[in-house]
Amino acid sequence: MPPEPAPRIFISYAWKNQPIAKRLQSDFKRDGVEVFVDYERIIGGDSLPARISAGLDWCNILVLLWSADSTQSYYVTQEWTSAFHLQKRIIACVLDGTPLPALLASRLYLNFTPYETGYIQLCRSLGVTPKVIAEETAPPQALATRLQPQHAEIPVPQPLDEPRDSSPPKRNTIDNPFRREPKPAKPTPMLKPPEVFDDTENDHTKETARVAPLRWSWRKTTGVIIIIIVIAIFFKQQMLCREPSNPTSGEGQTQRITPTEQPAATPAETKPAGTSTPAETKTTQPTVKENAPTEVKLVELDLKLPKPMFIGTPQNLQVAKLEKPLGKPRPPFLAPEGTKNVAAGRPVKSSDEAPVIGELKMITDGDCEAGDGSYVELGPFLQNVTIDLGKKHTIYAILAWHFHKQPRVYYDVIVQVADDANFTSNVATLYNNDLDNSAKMGTGADNHFVETAEGRLIDAKGVQGRYVRLYSNGNSNDDLNHYIEVAVYGKPAGAI
User: Fold this and answer.
1) DSSP assignment, residue 364?
2) Segments forming the whole domain that contains residue 89
3) Which of 98, 151, 210, 473 has its C-alpha lying 20 to 30 A from 320's C-alpha?
4) CATH number of domain containing 363
5) How far apart, in Å, are the Cα atoms of 412 and each of 230, 294, 356?
6) Is 3 within the bounds of a domain?
7) H/E stretch holding 179
8) Which 3-state string (H, E, C) describes 59-75?
């Protein structure tokens, strides 16, 4: 009978269970087992489905880390179902008691709570002898006791010959030269010299002597408060005593003069042409700045919103710093007249050049509906999309829809504007809700939010740039990233 081939392991896991997957991979490598795991074998530019298919063809055993997060993961479902149809051996490792799918329910599974016990059982099923686990990852006491030799001798405490005296030990009366004498109690400081009371005084007199210093301190505090009140009243009277300028005399007034307004000349200042002196002209003509700012007319931005697919915020989203819904339509956004969507039809690039669903050009095609065929699905982990506006623009607002068919919260949403495609020149961050700096671009302070048909409107405050980039790192439903539409509202730089 030929020997069984060495195990070649493919680890299938959800993104939130990555710490356990990394620990399992490290233990497998320590014990000499070949492992395929996506974050190590897949690099930037690779096609994710193609690399996963190659990994499934290479392996002969799929270790499935099963949890509540795995039931929501698109790739975990694809991986174990593909392994099932390829007739690969599947070993399910249950992390949190979540029931297995119907196709795997008839198989035996390993309980990975705790991890150490589950790993030893997994090695036994693979025919691998695990090496000694480090002290910090040692098995629990019950497992350690079970792994001890069967005939280990356990010492039995022997009874004492004499009964123990239960009375407290007697104090040693021999003088100890090293014994410290108790320090005398410090006298209580008093604000007044203490008075001497003899033993013939009654209790009322003694109590009066005890509270005498306290009464003195209250008198001092009351005096300080009275002084502060007197000072405050004095300054208030000084302010009230100031006489306001006489509005009819013209003294002390400041008249705001716009470039289009000139003050009317009084009868005393009216003279025949050619009789005014330079000094009189200087006093009667206003000084107008040459570079006075022109008035900008603000109008309500016309936002085309799609049909809502759900109403309200789900109650079971356990997300930190989650923004509460307004419960009413969003207030209108004002922008300079002539502002429009300058991203319409512009080219889009992404960190995932081969989307799982859709094409990148759909992100700027003007379709913001939530139906099938309207969104682009990118791979897991941190992904980004970059829009080239063609030239430098003054940007007033950015409106983005990730996926509003279902209530979801997308993580590590970061929006940036820059002058160059590599985002090294004049980079401005407009939004960042990466609360734990997992994207390595700085800790954000903005809120998480639930995707709705209104999209996420970001105030760009007139920032200038040519390229707009948006990041995301999975969502509350699965590890994937989605974009329906991104609109950038602005005007060419320098336009009034």
Assistant:
1) G
2) 8-146
3) 98
4) 2.60.120.260
5) 57, 40, 20
6) no
7) none
8) CCEEEEEECCCHHHCHH
